[in-house]
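Follow-up to my earlier ticket, as requested here are the two runs.
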Amino acid sequence: MDTGNVLEFYKSDNLNETEKKNCLCVIMPAYNEGMHIRENILKASEIISGFVHNYRIIVVNDGSSDNTFEEISSAAKADSKISFISYKPNQGKGKAITNGVKYANADYIAFLDSDLELNPIMLKGFLRAMKSENADIVIGSKLHKDSKLEYPLMRRIMSIGYYLVLKLMFRLDIKDTQTGIKLFKGSVIKTLTEDMITDGYAYDIEILAKANKAGCKIIEMPIELKFKRERKEKSRISLKTSIKVFKDTIKIKKALNN
């Protein structure tokens, strides 16, 4: 990764860019998730081991100010399938995933939110669908007719509104770009994450818009989502964040038109 703007950088001893290629690598970005992160990572590894033997989880600690680093380190010591990188300051979710992709060496690379509101068992079906339909990308969709959601009404309304905006702007034949579980062919995502212009939540839009323009086959899968974040816990999607996503979306549109 580019450490030009990084003040502190660590990586786990078992993370090596030249190690034997894995079948599946799951990248889990984390920011101030210290309360649950150790339990979530170990649970994710347990679930993934049930359907893939040759896998690795790369957790990216994106400049957390709490004990996320210590909890991730503890999980990596407990499970050799878990690796991590950690840096300061915070650079945004998109940048965290891009940094993780640089260290991933696998036939298939997945993104998974570290709060585990989305169960990694869904990746089993994603892998099966990718192979059977020869897809380049498989994404989870909250707006799929078969999805089962325990999700705030306002978030649902926002998802539908954003889908309509993206449909008009990018003519994407997909309903949901933002759900935090996605699967890519390794070679495809390595190419797509080169020269990214966004580093926050609009990152998903940029990747999928670039993939669509490149002619990649993208399919959507239903998900089961259980919203876990307590009211007292600060939402990741603030008004400031929403404004930045909108501005970044315009920037992506301009870049793809050039």
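Run two:
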Amino acid sequence: MNRETFSIVIPVHNRARIVSRTLDSIVAQSYRPLHIVLVDNNSTDGTFDILRQWKELHQSDDLIIDVICEKRKGASAARNAGLALVSSRFSCFFDSDDIMHPELAAEAMKALTASPTPENSVVAWRAIFKDSSGTSRRLRYSSRNPLRNHLLHGILATQRTAASTSLYRRAGGWNESLPCWNDLEFGVRVLLCHPHFSFIDKDLVTIHFTSRSITGRNFTHRAGEWEMSLQSIERALRTTDDERDRSLMSLLEYRRAVLAGHYLREAKSFTSSRGKTSAEILTNRLSKSPFLTKFQRRLLRPLIIWTIKVNKGMATLFSRFF
């Protein structure tokens, strides 16, 4: 029985020491045929040679591998270059330092092909997060109201979702001007296309956080860049109807308040004036936001204080009021 090809696009930058772990998890996939697009993004540590060697070793009739170079900087540019090579009906993106569980592709294809609207479908699954100390935790997830929960928990993060290729293209591809939280922003645009959404209640990926992960170890060192993504999301949400627009906008303000709390927490720890200044800009904006009620504004200060002192559980305590 002939089966459809599933495509996986992976941007890679200076991952010579660890990319084999990700590539091995792809070879271990129970589903075939697969089309793998590896996009080297200006690596200087021999990564490109490793990718080519892996292709020579593993390419077969049911495991087609493309290795290309993308000179434009950034994972989003690399993902767009990879997406341009995809011809299969369904695809996903993945990161070069994480691990696919063996059944990921099979489960994704099962859900996507079972959709009542396959050409406008997206699927997400659970994930395990492992930090640099080896501690693991299951990432939060809710299948109710996907757009709201994506804004809260990033349920369409790069490693946690697949979709019809035409949906990815219809959403406009990746925003190459955003250096971080680009999957949060892209996921919003995907969901604003009103796709059929399905959820696989299984852990299908292990996300490894390292000192070289794209998001880095703190928020302050990329102050201003997180805000760029939130601003782009706001522009996308303004295309929705008024009632939903206001609800989602208030949730976006909640994320800005949490970000301000992270800046202040780090300013206290690292005696950094940059974090304090960035937090002041955000809190001043929030104080004038037309999307917050008086009650929500009163919650901003305890939300920020909770983020500074506890740094967890914010969504459980506060997000229901936004």
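The only thing I checked on run two: The longest strand covers residues 196-208. Let me know what else you need.
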